[in-house]
Design a protein that fits this description.
Blueprint (H helix, E strand, L loop, with lengths): L10 E3 L21 E6 L15 E4 L13 E8 L9 E9 L4 E5 L8 E7 L2 E7 L16 E2 L2 E7 L6 E2 L1 E11 L6 E15 L9 E10 L10 E2 L4 E11 L3 E13 L6 E11 L7 E10 L10 E3 L16 E6 L14 E4 L15 E4 L1 E3 L10 E7 L9 E8 L4 E5 L9 E8 L2 E9 L24 E2 L2 E6 L3 E2 L1 E12 L5 E10 L6 E2 L10 E2 L4 E12 L4 E12 L6 E11 L7 E9 L18 E2 L27 E6 L15 E3 L7 E8 L4 E8 L3 E5 L14 E8 L5 E8 L9 E2 L2 E6 L2 E2 L1 E12 L5 E10 L2 E4 L14 E2 L4 E11 L7 E12 L10 E11 L90 E8 L22 E6 L17 E4 L11 E8 L6 E8 L3 E5 L8 E7 L9 E8 L11 E2 L2 E8 L3 E4 L1 E11 L7 E10 L2 E4 L1 H4 L3 E2 L10 E7 L4 E13 L4 E12 L33 E9 L27 E6 L2 E2 ...
Antiparallel strand pairs: 1-12, 2-6, 2-10, 3-8, 4-5, 4-7, 7-8, 9-10, 10-11, 12-16, 13-14, 13-15, 13-17, 17-18, 19-20, 19-33, 21-27, 21-31, 22-23, 24-29, 25-26, 25-28, 28-29, 30-31, 31-32, 33-37, 34-35, 34-36, 34-38, 38-39, 40-41, 40-52, 42-46, 42-50, 43-48, 44-45, 44-47, 47-48, 49-50, 50-51, ...
Length: about 1500
Amino acid sequence: MMLMITGNNNVVDENGEDCREIEIPDSRCDGNPEILSFTFEPRSCGDVIFVPDGVVCEDFEDFGTIAIANDSSEVVCRRTTSREEEDGMVIVVFDQEVQAGDLIVIPMNGIDICELTCDIISFGSVVQSLDWTKETTCGEEELFLKDIYGSLQLEGCGSGSGNDQNCLKEVEYTYTIENIHNLPMEVTLLERMRFTRRVDANAINGESESSGGTETIDLIDKIEVEDRFLEPGETTEAIENDVIDVCAEGEYETTVRVKADPPEGIPCQDEDMYVILTEPLKDCRVDLDITCETRTSDDAEDSGGRVECTEIDAPEPICEGNIEEINFTYLGTDCSNSFNSQPTLILIESSGDDEDEDDEDEDESLLQCEDFDGGPEGNMAVSVLCIDGTSFDDDVTVIVSVNRVAVGQSFAVPAPGAGPMPDVIVCEIQEGRIKKQTVTILSSNNDNNNNQEEEPTHATRLALKDRFGSLQVESCNNEQNCLVPITYTYTINNVGQTPMELTRLERTVSDDTAPMDLLPEVDDDDRTFGVGESRVVYEEDDILDVCVESEVVVVGVVEADPPEGVPCLDVDEYVIPTIPDKFCRVDAEVTCTSSNSNGIGNGIGNGDDDDDQDCDDIPPPERFNCNVNDNDNDNDNDCVESLTFTYVGRNCREDFNGQEDSCKDFGIGPGINSRIICTNEFNRVKFRDTVTIGDRVVIDSAEEEEEEEEEEGKVLNCELFDTENGERTQELTLNLCGDVSLKSVYGALQLEGCDELTCLVDITYVYRIQNVGTDEMDVTRVERIRNGQTLSLLDDDNDNDNDNDNILNVGEFTEIEEDDILDVCTTSVEAEICTKLVVEVDPPEVEGEGELCLDVDEYCIVTDSNPTLPPTQTPTPPPTEPPTPSPTPPPTPPPTPLPSRVDSNPPETDPPTDPPTPLPTPLPTPTPTTPPFEDPSPSPSQMPSPVDDGCYISVDADCTPSGESNDCGSVVVTRTRCEDRPLAMVFRYNGGLCDQSDNIQNSELFQCFDFQEGPPVNAGDESYITVTDIKGGSIIYHADTVRVGGEYTVLDEPFQVEANMNITTWRNDNTIPQNILQTLVFHSSCSQNLFLKDRFGAHQLVVFVNEEQGLRSCFFNATFNLNIANDVQGTGAILQRLSSNTNYGLFNFTNEVNGIFLEPGETLSPSPSFDVVIDLTVVTNNVIFTSVLARSEEGFQCSDSDFLAFVTGLALPPNVPTRAPTGAPTRTPLPTPDPQDTACSLQSIVQCDVTNAAGLFECDNIVPPISTECTSGGFPREVEFIYRGGNCIDSSTPQEFFCNGAADLEEVWITIISGNNNILWNRITTRNEFMDLRGIDESIDVTISTVENRRVGDELQSMTFNTTCTAASQLRLKDTFGALQLVEFTTLDGDDATVNAAFANVEITYAVELEGGTSTRARLVSATSTGGPSNEELDVTDYDPPAEVLGPRDTHVFGTAGIVLDLMNGSTEGVDYSYVLEVNADSASNPDLPCSNTDRVDFTVE
């Protein structure tokens, strides 16, 4: 433009447009802008009227320092990304000092605004933070010009290509001066005055208008001196740049005054004015804000007690204290929906107040829930009547009556009157006048029916959300309430620059399918909003259930129309997470039923009915007399066909039956065990077996006979024999057509069942365990208590190693069944059989307060006394003593039939696989028993007689190593040398001093030192033992307390052990020098002599594991098998006792075998067995004496025994030079070969080891690195450096690190300490030595010093560098850090280790020893090794033979060869390496008997 002395003027923007015609930009930023522009103006987060969604603004304590206008502040903006490929990197995108009013331009370069954070820093402290990464709505909201974010106001957004949306426009004022006179002139004054007025719609503190005042500037310097002289008609220009805000209403008035002097005469002057008017943005913008609050009490508003909905605490789930009111929600469900821990059957005790009644008051039992007529429909409203359930008199107390309750509605049940809530509430649900359901609820905290000995945790107490059929507990008292009234408030703000009118307001709650239209709830007058106006348009009441874990999401949508332009819309979301308290509660329930599956109906209804019947409802048989017409003995139809007895072992004088002369005793009569043979009158055997008191004797006379039907028996004859001596003890005769009654006693037999009648009913107990809490639980105890005996029902012998087997999730249940037998014929006394179930569970810890909880339930079976007792005919008692009937119920449960009889109540003894403590001395040889008596078996057609019967049994014990076939006596400790570097080792802590060491490692490898009194030696004494590497102690293989005689494991998974170890024994875990009892070092890589049973001071190697040899141990598992057989044809044998007495303890199998019947020629299968662990580090006399006792079918006894003895631990390994660790063995020594006639036999040894690469390389699996830079994240599991020597300047690593000094000596002392102060390396180190470091963390400090007197000297070099596996650390193989070179790093991915090594340090060891198993000494004559890579000339080395003779326990090492393979330069790829050792020798006792051997190792680098 031109501003001329004549008054013409013009202003243009950067695009050449007239500034009065500049268009206002669209305030809504398009897409993802590449550039964002902000003006900096110190503001607190709270000073901003409207904070846009998507950003979190936070002021800090030092914010006041930002308001000093003359001081600069620093603005730092960063990009923070969680993208996986960038590993959460932080990139600085802006860092600049700014003052108020400065423009900040942030290059986004593809950065999403949701990845941006900006900090305002003043005087070194962050005073304000703007974070777009924390707000969940970021990315959902649009960017608008003039939005204020704390101290930053958005002024522009765009791509930087000229199409930007900017509020701040750069303008150019051009002032043109023209000489319009006829005289020359000189411009002497050019002065500009500018008045600025600006209105900001988003201004803070309510100040919407601000004025910049009048600013005067001298512009004469804008014109060059020579251009100030103007001839007539000439012009000159002055240009001024400025910035105007085109997005805010404003006025920019510029006045320019110019003066000029002619050569002579009067000066002249002129002035001009230019005015730019800007209009505000006219965009429509609406903001919806949803809030939610609740009141905690009626007067909460007065007390300021409104609570943010997200801050509501869930109530304690278990109802506490005295309950005054309970609120229920009606669910409309049947009883199967019940979910609580209260008993299913609730006992209401009688008050017993009415003493005038003839009948005693009886207690009443009510079902917890009972449905009628199909239960509630679920879609109909119901009426609910709740009464006091503690009394069932006619005058009941009504607590509450609700006429109409729909599904989902709640109602209150208050305590009646001013009294407490009744202990029992009974509610009846009716649809119309039809009763649909009754529920019975224990409202008190007292246990009602369980009578448990231990106080249950949350056992039967009422809890929130308990379900009783169709009723669900929502609150107990006002303090514990699940349903909390809340209010949602919808506030609308006009944050645009134009008025607007609401046209849409909707909200959706969580999973609602359709939104709710709220606009009709807003008055018409409240729908119009002026600029900056804000008001609450709607409040919505709701109920929040805080006892259900969920997330309530309220989404609101608002839309508004401006007078002109495009409508605007906003969405807001309010999320309420409800997290109820976790609590543990378990419900234990016992039920008992009997299904008539045995076909015995007891004469009650239909005996074929298979429906389950409650055990407490099982009636006795309809009659006790087995005969329909027992007085008519000639009526064959009245004869009993089937009978079931219980063996009670009584004498005849205790007979109690209706038959005469039916019993005769012999001797002292029957005992605990008897052999019983029962026949009919035709001498057909109906029963033959050995029984114990409580066993069943089943007779079926109606079974199909080979003879004619008329031979069916009407008489039963039974003979009883003593099981010890075979003598007859009792004879019984029973007339099956006479008086036969249940519970009659016939000598040693008591009648329990006949034909369709029975006293013994099969029943099943079901133990149900359900998680009725709100957290998963681990069932830790399930016990059944009956008749004073406790039985654990928890499966402790689960072999599948699944820790989740006993886990119950919320609502889950499990059931355990137990079969039993119920005697329903209790005679004169009312009997009660109670079964108690105790369940204890352990929940996970919740906020550190996990606690055990338990529940107890009890089920009692009451059998009433029977008025009609058998027998119906008075028996004839012996003249000296009246009969005393004392029926004995059978034991529970009864034994199963032979031959696989198992005792139903076995004594609680340790299983045979878990032997007791070994005996201190071997047992003496037992005296064999008398051989068993043999006699031919009786004729099958006659009842056998004891005098013609025999008994035969045999036992043979053997021992085999588990999983092997050879016998235990042949297991000896062979020459078990460790041939490959171990993965793990096990040591026995023997205690004692260094002088007991037994190994053949030389003094450079093994050193041991005692301190104070040395380690203890008494068994059980404890010491603290640490095992580390000797390089710096960075690898800790073991650090724990160990008892003398105990074992401990040394390992560092997945790596092999280091070549040398230190074992230090401490007095206790306070590892200070004063507590050291012993310290030692030894060679552990197996490249030198290391054998099983080697002793290193107080420690003895008993197990090692490596890849080549697998597991080698000084222990083996021995299995002793007891082979039992009836070897003789003709008669069976019934086992009675079996036991083995050993030096490891007594193993008794009597309970397992008692009653098993072996047919003639049969062998017991499977054979009983037991396992023991045999220690080969000591000589042990193993003695096993086994005895077995049996009886024949006729009562003859027989027995056998076996004696097994063998010695273990005899052979001594080569590391024990002169003495055995225990007394001398007693077996005959092995024969020694004649040295004059036996040639020597050699074993050449070429051993190849890779001494670096974390022990994960073997010579046959050397591979190049997969990655040369460690970028896996986290810390490396292990790294290796080589000391090369060098200074800091020559470091090749790109990592910026601290380094000072230089180290170039051949031998230095290097100390390396991790960032967590772990010592990784601290020792003398030579040039090119590999340093294996473990325990790496964020960084390491390295100090390299001189060596003085084998100690650390003066510092040469120190450095600190990062050791994390990130791109920023730039850990790259072969890079140098001062004097160190990184040559290997190992990373872990789960359990998988990956080694990346630049070099492989291969060590070849050449050695020789006598071949295993030979003893002829050898004198070495020559030895030659040849080796190297195939692409080079092989190295050949001749070794001088040693002067010493090579003996059976000697190993001679000729030497070692080392080679370092570069795995990164390709020189080793595909190259074959071969190393051979050839050794020649003569027999030391006869030079004419030479021997030789060759060994070789070959490998190829992949």
